[in-house]
Design goal:
- This is ABC transporter G family member 11-like.
- This protein has 659 residues and is of the alpha/beta class.
- It contains 23 helices and 17 strands.
- The strands form 6 sheets. A 6-stranded mixed sheet has the order 7-8-9-5-10-11, sandwiched between helices.
- Bound molecules: adenosine-5'-triphosphate (ATP).
- Adenosine-5'-triphosphate binds next to helix 2.
Length: 659
């Protein structure tokens, strides 16, 4: 490496180190976040392949007012480094090394950091304004007035250049809405509402053309010095154009987990040139860097390798060794040491997001709007239910009170209690979309699982009432089921409880399976078993005791649904030949008549609460277990850093990191 480069780089870094909170480009950032990491290793264990290092001894820093870009070929470890710094690594990874915030092992208060993921998990039915405004209400503290929150949302939308699309719906698979670049910007808007001092972005320009990429990146770059507060921005990026590259202060170049270069972006070109890899004239430097260190296609090009061209593996080796022995590396290490020595503040730990009740209220309203606008969530189901109800009403029209009507009534009630409730599964894909948004927001600490469960339960209630009462009425009266408003009310209420139950069951399934197809199969399988063991297809006394009777019959909600419906229908009825409904209940259907139908209904509502509580527990357990597993797998405790949840019951991996 030429002496000039190392000197110029050294000057830049020495000037920028000083007391650790002043740098040449950006002046004083006393209240910003300095992030340092030293000798960071991330390994994954695989039973077949053993353990593999996906990040090998990374050392670096990120400072307020600066934009650090992490670059490298696909699979080089960019997202892994970003995740490690943000405390989001998967539980199958092991991590060693030290990550410090302002030179300390300390907590990141809520709102201090934000993470924009690669996928845009947004509610497709909401407009840009609604998306950002709802998010502002969820995240910003109650000390801010509604007008202030609205103003913050509008300002952020303008900052991201989305004012022209403010009333456009996000759109998704069912309807065209925003472009890919606009969606990326909405995702960024949401995460910068709290004005975080530390911002992680995972490939914010993926899928964008070069003009859109520049637009998005320049907006992000402008954030680093807004409001006179120095923001620390770390972004992974695939292939920046020349213009985008100019926006970076520092560059971290990775190849197969190894650091090929970490230092000022402006000095990277000279580093490559001085080590025998000059950038050809007219070639974009970042393209040149990536081309030099990308060995994915080595085998294909081996034979056509131009004379004198060094194989990629060797090039990477030369560069990593050159970097390790360079002054730049020494300067980075001393910069890290300087930052760690500085007399920095402990980050603010006060909880500052919206109150729990505000979150429940906002989530209920947002979810209601989404359910109302998404035709697949409830409306389509309502139409299908009505058609089915009409079908049932005609098939079972005017049953009368003959002996044969006993069997027909049983079949009709059984079909309603199992198949109509089973079809609640139809809203699962829409629920999974909502869950994706919830998962992103929960990981970023916007709110907790309890607020989500309450919001979802309240917002779905009116739709479920409609879907149980309208088709319920259509199917109840034409066949001539037991008259009286009390009987119909019980019937519709029981249908409502069953639909709630299936929705709750599917919530649990959604929290356990990776995608909605598996969810539908699992949910349908569980319900199929429950229907079979519910005591209709085989009467309770005929059910084989192991598994089917004990425990399935007692835990299947269908048992209580059938029995409640049967009691509601047959109790007090008289059929031809003076046959008593109560006797039919006991002898023909083997219903437990020792307790009232209202007990069955209460059990069903109890199950709803239990299922929703179970969902909450599962999410909480995975949330709590993950860091514990990571901690258990991590090695020596001395080398671990803990960025604890500073604030809340909604503590998330972003705030609660075990490194
Ligand atoms: N939790 C994990 N378990 C197993 N392997 C993993 C895990 N996380 C990452 N890897 C592997 O580590 C390597 C680096 O992954 P990473 O996602 O960090 O790469 P990347 O540079 O961000 O790639 P891309 O640009 O394609 O997103 C990949 O080979 C990936 O398969």
């Amino acid at each position: 490496m030429s002496e000039e480069i190392s000197r110029s780089t050294a000057i830049e870094i020495v000037e920028s180190s000083g007391n650790g909170s002043r740098n040449k480009r950006n002046g004083y950032y006393g209240d910003g976040v300095f992030l340092t990491w030293e000798d960071l290793w991330v390994t994954v264990s695989n039973r077949k392949k053993g353990s593999t290092s996906i990040l090998q001894g990374a050392t670096g820093y990120a400072r307020p007012g600066e934009l650090l870009a992490i670059m490298g070929p696909s699979g080089s470890g960019k997202s892994t480094l970003l995740d490690a710094l943000a405390g989001r690594l998967g539980s199958n990874t092991r991590q060693t090394g030290e990550i410090l915030i302002n030179g300390r092992k300390q907590a990141l208060a809520y709102g201090t950091s934000a993470y924009v993921t690669q996928d845009d998990a947004l509610m497709t039915t909401l407009t840009v304004r609604e998306t950002v405004y709802y998010s502002a209400q969820l995240q910003l503290p109650d000390t801010m007035s509604i007008a202030e929150k609205r103003e913050r949302a509008e300002l952020t939308i303008t900052e991201m250049g989305l004012q022209d699309a403010i009333n456009t719906r996000i759109g998704g698979w069912s309807s065209k809405g925003l472009s890919g670049g606009q969606k990326r910007r909405v995702s960024i808007c949401i995460e910068i509402l709290t004005r975080p001092k530390l911002l992680f972005l995972d490939e914010p320009t993926s899928g964008l053309d070069s003009a859109a990429s520049y637009y998005v990146m320049s907006r992000i770059a402008k954030l680093d010095q807004r409001d006179g507060v120095g923001r620390t921005i770390i972004t992974s990026i695939h292939q920046p154009s020349n213009e985008v590259f100019q926006l970076f202060h520092n560059l971290c170049l990775l190849s197969s987990g190894k650091t090929v270069y970490f230092g000022p972006a402006s000095a990277a070109n000279e580093f490559f040139a001085s080590n025998g890899f000059p950038c050809p004239i007219h070639q974009n430097p970042s393209d040149h860097f990536l081309k030099t260190i990308n060995r994915d296609f080595d085998k294909d090009i081996e034979e056509d390798l131009p004379e004198g061209r060094i194989p990629t593996e060797e090039a990477i080796d030369i560069l990593t060794k050159a970097y390790k022995s360079s002054d730049i590396y020494e300067q980075v290490r001393s910069q890290v040491a300087e930052i760690c020595k500085q007399d920095s503040e402990v980050m603010e730990k006060k909880r500052k997001h919206a109150r729990f009740l505000t979150q429940c209220n906002v989530l209920t309203r947002r979810s209601f709007v989404n359910m109302f606008r998404d035709l697949g969530y409830y409306w389509l189901r309502l139409v299908v239910y009505i058609l089915l109800a009409v079908g049932l009403a005609t098939v079972f029209l005017n049953l009368g009170t003959s002996y044969r009507s006993i069997q027909a009534r049983g079949s009709l009630l059984m079909f309603i209690a199992s198949f109509l409730t089973f079809m609640t599964i139809g809203g699962f894909p829409s629920f999974v979309e909502e869950m994706k948004v919830f998962e992103r927001e929960r990981l970023n600490g916007h709110y907790g699982v309890t607020a989500f469960v309450i919001g979802n339960s309240l917002s779905s209630a009116p739709f479920l009432v409609l879907t149980s009462f309208i088709p319920g009425a259509i199917v109840y009266f034409p066949p001539g089921l037991q008259g009286g408003s009390q009987h119909f009310f019980y019937f519709a209420l029981l249908l409502y409880a069953c639909m709630l139950l299936v929705e709750s069951l599917m919530m649990i399934v959604a929290s356990l399976v990776p995608n909605y197809l598996m969810g539908i199969i699992t949910g349908a399988g569980i319900q199929g078993l429950m229907i079979l063991g519910g005591g209709f297809f085989r009467l309770p006394n005929d059910l084989p005791p192991p598994f089917w009777k004990y425990p399935l019959y007692y835990i299947a909600f269908h048992k209580y649904a059938y029995q409640g419906m049967f009691k509601n229908e047959f109790e007090g009825m008289r059929f031809e030949n003076n046959q008593d409904g109560d006797e039919i209940l006991r002898n023909t259907w083997q219903v437990e008549t020792g307790y009232s139908k209202w007990v069955d209904l209460t059990i069903l509502f109890g199950m709803v609460i239990f299922y929703r509580f179970l969902f909450l527990v599962i999410i909480k357990i995975t949330e709590k277990l993950k860091p514990m597993i990571i901690a258990f797998l991590s090695v020596p405790p001395k080398q671990t850093t803990q960025i604890m949840a500073a604030t809340s019951a909604t503590a998330t991996p972003l705030q609660e990191q075990r490194v």
